[in-house]
Write a structure and sequence with these properties.
Blueprint: E1 6-11, H1 15-24, E2 30-35, E3 52-54, H2 65-82, E4 87-88, E5 92-97, H3 101-112, E6 117-120, H4 122-128, E7 138-143, E8 147-149, H5 151-164, E9 168-170, E10 177-180, E11 185-188, E12 193-196, E13 198-201, H6 207-210, E14 219-228, E15 244-249, E16 252-257, E17 265-268, E18 275-276, H7 288-301, E19 311-319, E20 326-329, E21 335-339, H8 349-362, H9 374-384
Parallel strand pairs: 1-2, 1-13, 2-9, 5-15, 13-21
Antiparallel strand pairs: 3-8, 4-8, 5-7, 6-7, 10-11, 11-12, 14-17, 14-18, 14-19, 15-16, 16-17, 20-21
Bound molecules: flavin-adenine dinucleotide.
Length: 392
């Protein structure tokens, strides 16, 4: 007997939604509808801002490493299928004092998973990466599988392939309401109501607005990006010479990527911004004081940087209390939720898209760590309360 066709709607065509649409569009007997509140690849989502750091040596812990290795393969698949450059494997350098907890966890994942890497003491760091001002107590781990991703190009590519495979993607089409019935789900949009079998909810920072179960769990962290110009020469900061990096220097956490535009370098350090509940509470810009403080911090760590940013933008991301993502299949098996990527999830969105497709089409929960399920998150929420800030 022929298998029944499933109609699956992906709500939100940003980071996770674009990957879910791509993965679902490869499945047989699946009709994919994608609904996005803004236009195709916009500047309001958590993926905006030219680049994202990719790493497999992971201070967040070993639980993520299999998903990161899977995603690394899938970033290459995305490049092959789209013909676009998405991932620059220039390495990711973590610099911190040897006894810094995050340095130790990063080292732990390198050893546990035998990840290709190089280790540096302070003198070796100075010699190999003269762009950075190195303290005597600094140590470095270069994750050779790390590098820089191009988020807007990634989302555009995944959407393009999904459409080529037959997905019906609608832009400027916000989902205003979700009604679940025993045999279907109805999605209300301003012009049309869609009746589908299943939905993948990938609405990022807006999730609590349409998914009441997430209201207590998620909080939004404001996160900013700044780009600085080297005063003498951009060449040492081009991808062939400068790995993506993370630095912990006392209380200051700085991260950055090589120059993709050929004149400026993305180097960021976040002020202690409040945690908010809704995207409407996110400021549109940094204050002058914030920019001056960041410029000073950056110049101390990378002395050639002119301390006045040439570009800056303020964004947001939904966080869970323990910063693990939510990947959940509802009891009815009709609603798949992927949310709370907690400021570090872009790098593994291909794997999340694959998980979402497996949950929606096969009901297969085996590949998803139990810690990602909503039950587990709600337990953590009861024990710890919501995310309070301080994550980066
Ligand atoms: C400044 C910054 C720097 C970061 N740096 C890194 C990094 O270096 N490395 C890394 O791995 N991660 C990083 N992250 C984290 C990562 O970028 C985010 O976790 C990820 O992009 C979140 O993806 P998402 O799909 O949940 O949300 P989004 O990409 O924002 O997608 C949600 C989409 O849903 C749409 N939507 C919402 N509601 C509706 C509705 N009702 N109807 C229709 N559509 C709707 C939105 O318009 C949006 O397009 C960073 C995040 C920020 C903000």
């Amino acid at each position: 007997m022929a298998k029944k066709q499933l109609t699956i709607a992906v709500i939100g065509l940003g980071s996770v939604g674009s990957m879910a649409a791509w993965q679902l569009s490869k499945r047989e007997n699946v009709r994919v509808i994608g609904l996005e509140q803004y236009g195709r690849v916009h500047s309001h989502g958590s993926y905006a801002g030219e680049s994202r750091v990719f790493r497999t040596a992971y201070h967040e812990g070993g639980l993520y490493v299999p998903m990161l290795l899977e995603s690394r393969k899938m970033w290459r698949e995305l490049e092959q299928e789209s013909g676009r450059d998405v991932y620059y494997e220039v390495g990711t350098l973590s610099i911190a004092e040897e006894n810094h907890p995050e340095y130790q966890t990063t080292l732990g994942t390198v050893r546990d998973y035998d990840l290709p890497h190089e280790l540096f003491d302070a003198d070796q760091l100075r010699e190999r990466f003269p762009q950075h001002h190195i303290h005597d107590t600094d140590r470095g781990i270069l994750d050779l599988q790390g590098g820089g991703l191009r988020p807007e190009v990634s989302v555009m590519s995944a959407l393009e392939i999904a459409e080529r495979n037959g997905a019906d993607l609608r832009f400027n089409t916000p989902v205003l309401g979700i009604e679940e019935y025993s045999d279907s789900i109805k999605l209300r949009t301003p012009r049309e109501t869609f009746t589908v079998d299943k939905i993948v909810v990938a609405t990022g920072s807006w999730s609590a607005r349409i998914h009441p179960e997430l209201h207590d769990l998620l909080r939004l962290q404001i996160l900013g990006l700044t780009w600085f110009m080297p005063r003498t020469d951009v060449a040492p900061f081009l991808p062939e010479n400068f790995p993506a990096f993370l630095r912990d220097s006392g209380p200051v956490h700085v991260f950055g990527a090589p120059s993709f535009d050929g004149y400026s370098v993305k180097v960021c350090s976040n002020p202690t911004w409040d945690v908010v509940r809704d995207v409407d509470e996110v400021p549109l810009s940094y204050t002058r004081d914030e920019l001056a403080r960041i410029g000073q911090q950056i110049q101390e760590l990378i002395p050639d940087m002119n301390p006045e940013p040439v570009r800056q933008s303020v964004h947001h991301c939904a966080y869970t209390p323990n910063r693990l993502p939510v990947v959940d299949l509802s009891e009815s098996e009709r609603v798949i939720t992927v949310a709370g990527l907690s400021g570090h999830g872009f790098k593994f969105i291909p794997a999340l898209g694959k998980h979402a497709a497996a949950l929606a089409v096969d009901g297969d929960t085996d590949a998803v760590p139990a810690e990602f399920g909503l039950d587990s998150h709600m337990q953590v929420l009861r024990e710890r309360g919501p995310y309070q800030g301080g994550g980066h």
